[in-house]
Amino acid sequence: MRRPLIIAAVILSFIAGMAAAPVSRRYITLPRAGNDAKLPFSDAVLVGDTLYLSGRIGFDPATGKPPSDIDQEIKNLLDGVSNILKEAGMTMDDLVSVQIYCPDLTLYDRFNAAYRARFSKDLPARAFLGSGPLLRGGHFEMMAIAVKQ
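RESULT FIELD:
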């Protein structure tokens, strides 16, 4: 008869310990230039081993606008995501879920060519979504979730 009581006490102790252990949060904001220095969001939030990345556009750091060359915009975007991941001790291979917003779906294949080259193994789950206009004339905005392997 004592055995069920002991098991119940162990389970309750475990549950209480889980509730009492707060999960740490780390807010990541990379240096920004000009008016972007005071934007009202973090680039990412690390909660335990999970990193939540804000939407990011491939702006030219010098102008704060997307470059006229689409391939450079894609490179800027993916470099920016890589830099945020690096700051959290992660790589592109830690991404598990990605959403790409794009007002021009004819750019799908062009984006995919550069995107695919950034991964050394399995690709994350992903959505490529048609959207309305993006901030400052961007062609792509990427949001993602990464989990440290």
